[in-house]
Amino acid sequence: MSQSATELYTSVYHQTRFAFDPERAKVWRALCRYLQTWVDPQAGSLDLGAGYGDFSRFIESGPKWALDLNPDLIPHWAEGVRPLIQGALAPLPIPNGSLGTVFASNFFEHFTTDEGQQILQEARRTLQPGGKLIAVQPNFRLEPHRYFDDYTHKTAYTDAGFAGLLAASGFRVVHSEPRFTPFTMKSRWPKAEWMVSLYLALPYRPLAGQFLVVAEATH
Description:
CATH superfamily: Vaccinia Virus protein VP39
Number of domains: 1
Oligomer: single chain
Radius of gyration: 16 Å
Number of helices: 6
């Protein structure tokens, strides 16, 4: 696929499957407050498949990078975020051991397992000792019937299967929540910030279809 065809493909995807919705900001503000526990507020962070840039906007960290193929998304990103408009399989122009956090939401299912391992190894290279990879992924175990409704999904992951991929890629899982958030924000996912915070505080989360995993890079 040529670069121009790839850019058109990603642009159409954002128009059809992932159109901009300002209500997402309320959800992400609460999500980032929850995830901040595992994010070093002083060290740098990278958002893989940044989309509309909500993670970088609301998380507290040092220098922020955002990676996506679609340059049309840059105007949505917060001031000061460093854009990386490139494919995820290309080497990252980030020095070894310079990041505290690499984040990915609904990202790895768009790649084969071999490609996913390649991306994880490059992420591991950029993380400092003790740095964290935080991934939010649709959980095939919870949503098998809807998992491939997104035509760009290539690989089905469960929370246990993804933990295995992390271990094979030089990571140690330090936190896992098999039932984290609903499968999609297009579902009956609450949009009010206080409702999201309340949902995340529940011991059992109804409608959950995605998992959260936090892993530490081993060096």
